[in-house]
Amino acid sequence: MACAVARHARLAKTMHDRSSCTAKWQYPALCATGVVLAAGVHPLAKLRTAVVHAEAVCSAVAHCVTATPLLVITASAVLLSLALLCYILCPTRRHAYVLDFEVHQPHASWRFARSRIRDLCHGKFSEEDIAFQERIAYRTGLSDETAVCPAIQSGDEANCGIEAARFEYGATCITTISKLFAKTGVSPHQVNFVITNSSLFNPTPSLSAMIMNHFKMSGRTINYSLGGMGCSAGVIALDLARELLGQHPNSIALVVSHENITNNYYSGSDKSMLIPNVLFRCNGSAVLLTNRSCDAARAKYTIQHIVRTNLAADDTAYNCVVQTEDAERHVGVRLNKDLIKVGARALRDNMTALGPKVLPYSEQAKYAASLAVRKAAKLQPALAKHLPARWLQPYTPDFRKAFDYYCIHT
């Protein structure tokens, strides 16, 4: 074997001496042959023949390059165009399928009717604050079938500690995940990624680690725990799962969404911080996503688009929901009056970004025409006088032609 490699090296040196032009073509061929030789596959007797053939081919190519540069340039342009066309028409991103999902179903003993708010708050809040919470509760749209965890129903603030919060997470999310695994037939050891999101309850060990420990998942499973990201955290977690599945073939991702109310019950008197007490109820959801082609037929959905609009750089948006302390040092979440305006602005920006991806061409054409007419009228005021008034109004696309269902967090 050592002799074969030495002969190979001498042949390479000989050809390099003959032509520096062909050496650029020959060295890759020689290296490839050398690798095969090291593996003991290529017969030593055919080495000289293979090298001579390679030299002849490379010399011919070099002659073509010298003789017809225009032909080479044209061929290169055609190949480059074809490659670009294939890249556009055949995207490499893998599909992200929603295999199935499960939502927490509370035990009957956890259900909390709105008529019980006064009894729960009696002696802890002023009459004015109790009436305020009752009024908000009946305006939220929550039914009497929604649930409140036992720690809060007990009426003793001392029960709402970290262990009670862990118990709530286990009762709402761990049980939901178990049902999801049973429904889909997926084993916990098959899960490649675990992503959890909870804005205000982020203990150590993390919530994603808690799931991995409970189900004894594989050491190869990668976990992520998102915190402090508000009502958008569920969609953000799905976006992260989709990105991970786009990079790792034949993978499964588990996304678990939760907001803990035990850990965030507010007992002060600031009205802007009392709203979350009646706005949120016990919750938990689990979603299994996959990019495995074998799961495509049984998947419930295929994720087509996820659009995110980030307003964190804007001070008004940044300060509209803040976890803080009131004047009496009670910790809670303050909802600013600007929240509605910020939410509407974020929704508008999201729909603007999503529109070109989902709207039919007819709606996009109407929007583009409306925009062009309004710009022309702004540049030529005389033209605006001769146009119908409705032409000068912004055109709002009909998103009903793109969606069958809407789910808007309010």
Describe the structure.
This protein is of the alpha/beta class. Helix content is 50%, strand content 10%. It has 15 helices and eight strands. The strands form two sheets. It has a six-stranded mixed sheet, sandwiched between helices. A hairpin with a 5-residue loop joins strand 7 and strand 8 (331-335). Helix 6 (127-139) crosses helix 11 (271-279). The protein is globular and about 85 Å long. Mean pLDDT is 82; it is low at 1-47.
What are its keywords?
single chain, 410 residues, alpha/beta, two-stranded antiparallel ribbon, disordered N terminus
Largest sheet: 6 strands, mixed
N-to-C SSE series?
Answer: HHHHEHHHHEHEHEHEEHEEHHH
What do the pLDDT scores average to?
82
Helix content: 40-55%
**End-to-end distance:** 75 Å
Strand order, biggest sheet? 3-2-4-5-1-6
| Structural class designation | alpha/beta
How many DSSP H or I helices? Answer: 15
Q: Could you tell me the strand content as a percent range?
A: 5-15%
- Report Rg: 32 Å
Q: Name the assembly state.
A: single chain
Tell me, briefly, the overall form.
globular
Poorly predicted runs: 1-47
Number of strands: 8
